[in-house]
Write a structure and sequence with these properties.
alpha+beta; 3-stranded antiparallel sheet; 32% helix; elongated
């Protein structure tokens, strides 16, 4: 049985509103700073960020597929 506790989230720059990161997570992942790239950290240090759920209540498989699709576009 698949658990639908995954979501897709976006990180947007506070200065421009531009999306600079798309991720998949559960729980509080979209608000955490751990396991982020140096580019992510540089953007956040300069501009700050806002986290937003793009789509929720997803299985891992569905969340992964959407994440890959959004990143490739």
């Amino acid at each position: 049985m698949n658990s639908n506790n995954n979501y897709i989230y976006l990180h947007k720059r506070n200065d421009t509103g531009e999306v600079f990161y798309v991720g998949r997570g559960t729980g509080e992942r979209m608000f955490k700073n751990s396991s982020r790239s140096s580019l992510w950290k540089d953007i956040v240090k300069t501009a700050g960020f806002t986290a937003e759920v793009y789509k929720g209540n997803l299985s891992f498989e569905d969340a992964h597929a959407i994440e890959v699709s959004l990143i490739s576009n």
